[in-house]
Design brief:
5 strands; membrane; 20% strand; transmembrane helix; alpha+beta; transmembrane
Length: 154
């Protein structure tokens, strides 16, 4: 269900971006305000564009979100201050916490808006270290930060 919701959000996000681009082109005078003159196939182009955006929106969550393991070892009590420090440095705040996991979201409302409120990073304790789930590009930074911070502490 999460996958479907992310796809729908991304589809509408792409529609908004396209509408902004077309509006800017019309206001700047680069194209006429008539859809039939903007696109070669006229109004038929709109459903073709929507179909292409739907394909992109359906594929994006598969590559845009992932799970990574940070090789950070120690008991949850020992690792928690390190996690809190690294997440704070990357602009995250603790959203909720339970015995086996912690959930973080961005502090900045603007950043959350740009990420369509899909900015949640969930960290759970695992045998191999810490398991992080969330936006792939953010996970790369966070895993590197966690592993580097633990090396500095040792």
């Amino acid at each position: 269900m999460k996958y479907f919701i992310r796809s729908v959000k991304y589809f509408f996000y792409l529609l908004v971006i396209l509408a902004i681009i077309i509006t800017a082109l019309v206001l700047a005078g680069f194209v006429e305000a008539d859809i039939s003159k903007i696109f070669i196939n006229g109004y038929d182009s709109l459903w073709q564009i929507c179909l292409i955006m739907a394909v992109f929106a359906a594929i994006y969550p598969r590559f845009g979100f992932s799970t990574r393991t940070a090789h950070v070892y120690g008991s949850p009590e020992d690792v928690k201050p390190l996690v809190m420090r690294v997440m704070d440095l990357h602009g995250y705040r603790l959203e909720k916490e339970d015995a086996e996991s912690m959930s973080f979201v961005k502090r900045s409302v603007v950043s959350r808006l740009l990420k369509m409120w899909e900015d949640r990073i969930t960290i759970s304790y695992d045998v191999a270290g810490l398991r992080l789930e969330g936006i792939s590009k953010d996970l790369v930074r966070l895993v590197s930060g966690l592993e580097a911070s633990q090396r500095e502490d040792v």
